[in-house]
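User: Here's a structure from my thesis project, written as structure tokens. My advisor, Dr. K., wants to see whether a designed sequence matches the one we expressed. Can you design one independently, without my sequence as a hint?
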């Protein structure tokens, strides 16, 4: 072996050693207000090594939120930070920023966090906050999305993962899952079917972000360096239903 070969093989060995080092786990803080079924989907994905990181803390503004129990059961730090104990939205968000920063997250996930965030909060973590919303954004920003979709008789409903900006439910959309609405659907059935789709797509979007594939820009989200369309990537009703083992409805 020439000395050049020797050097290059040493170099390669060193490189291999470096790549063999386990990467530091990416850190996720999840904010909730309620049941935390989306949190549970993220916990389950982490267990199966499909999240791309570790949930290091769960914070709830509602001290009785069931999601806090889910966190404890999964040995995740659970923090109750009741908003009612603060005089203003700004004071609360200031406290929230402090608790979050103590955990040094790479990503903050809003999983049913039912509070409007101040511009200060949004600017502090811009590009590092993902939210799940129960509609095909930009349709039905805000509350009561299922009732509004039914009242308008839409054929397609669903859910969206998006980056959080100062506009409520208005940041760049990353990923959506469609749901075909049938004549039998009620607010309850829509809620159930949309929830199932949320549990499917939220962990995927989190993993993409933590792998560095998904990024925020002021205009849009990008995936592998390519700008995504305004509705992000979309899982069709048929594909979602198949993933979820749903019976495809005849009149859908
Ligand atoms: C979900 O429907 C989500 O889209 C909305 O709040 C709900 C939270 O549900 N932002 P859960 O607490 O995760 O069960």
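Assistant: Designed independently from the structure alone:
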């Amino acid at each position: 072996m020439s000395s050049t070969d020797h050097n290059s093989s040493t170099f390669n060995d060193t490189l291999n050693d470096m790549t063999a080092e386990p990467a530091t786990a990416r850190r996720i803080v999840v904010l909730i207000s309620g049941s935390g079924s989306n949190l549970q989907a993220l916990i389950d994905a982490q267990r199966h090594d499909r999240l791309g990181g570790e949930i290091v803390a769960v914070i709830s503004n509602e001290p009785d939120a069931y999601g806090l129990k889910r966190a404890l059961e999964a040995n995740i730090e659970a923090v109750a930070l009741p908003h009612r104990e603060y005089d203003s939205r700004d004071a609360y968000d200031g406290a929230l920023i402090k608790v979050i920063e103590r955990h040094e997250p790479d990503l903050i996930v809003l999983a049913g966090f039912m509070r409007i965030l101040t511009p200060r909060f949004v600017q502090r973590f811009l590009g590092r906050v993902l939210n799940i919303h129960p509609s095909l954004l930009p349709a039905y920003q805000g509350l009561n999305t299922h009732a509004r979709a039914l009242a308008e008789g839409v054929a397609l409903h669903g859910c969206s993962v998006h980056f959080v900006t100062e506009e409520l439910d208005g940041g760049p959309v990353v990923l959506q899952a469609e749901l075909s609405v049938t004549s039998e659907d009620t607010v309850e059935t829509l809620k159930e079917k949309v929830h199932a789709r949320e549990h499917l797509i939220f962990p995927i979007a989190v993993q993409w972000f933590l792998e560095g594939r998904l990024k925020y820009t002021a205009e849009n989200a990008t995936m592998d360096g390519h700008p995504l369309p305004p509705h992000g990537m979309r899982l069709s009703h048929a594909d979602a239903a198949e993933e979820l083992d749903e019976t495809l409805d005849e009149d859908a």
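When you compare it with your expressed construct, this may help: The radius of gyration is 21 Å.
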